[in-house]
Design goal:
single chain; mainly alpha; Fumarate Reductase Iron-sulfur Protein, Chain B, domain 2; 3 domains; 3-stranded mixed sheet; binds iron/sulfur cluster
Length: 215
Amino acid sequence: MSYLLNLAQIEDEMAKCMKCGNCQAVCPLYKETLREAAVARAKVQLAYFYLRGEIPATPALAEKMLFCLTCMACVESCPSGVQVDKVVLAARAAMERELGLPWLKKVIFQSLKRGKLFDAALKTGRHFQSLGLRYRPDIQRCNPRFPIGLELRRVIPPLAKKTLREQLPEINRPANKPRARVAYFTGCMENYIYTDIGRAVVNVLLANDVEVIIP
Ligand code: SF4
Ligand code: SF4
């Protein structure tokens, strides 16, 4: 059984931590917030106490586990080799089983399973996103206007006015005879949000005489 389904499987990782604090210096979230709870040492201890039943699952505890990029900078610098990313992910999964997901995430994850519904939802959402999101021109990103299951300080990129697939044809031919042909899987981020990156990818390929099919 995966450690994501059973936090106890990863107990050895938690027990390895000697609380030396080496992970503090490298954690990007600690550098920004100076919160001890952001440091791997704290998350590993909290996960351990939670596993042993010494502290209950609460939204505040879940929020502390969510406050991690799983960037593994702490793993790289840990003298005990604690796999902090696995501990954090397993603790998140265990708490999600106990507490459930915020309604917005539930809706998003359910719609991700249904491609057409997801597409329709995002295309509708781009017209109404300003109702729930406040655009910040200084960083060209948005913050939630009110608690919609997300932290109010969460920075979210806005949906593009036109999806990449609406902007580009299915077959993109270079000016010269093509020397290769590629299928380009746009994924959802480039299709719905970072369309400029998608267009740049296609332009680079076309400039190199590559035909680009966007299925
Ligand atoms: S560096 Fe490793 S052993 Fe030291 S406190 Fe952080 S997680 Fe624990
Ligand atoms: S994995 Fe999490 S705790 Fe470790 S350095 Fe990255 S953000 Fe910090």
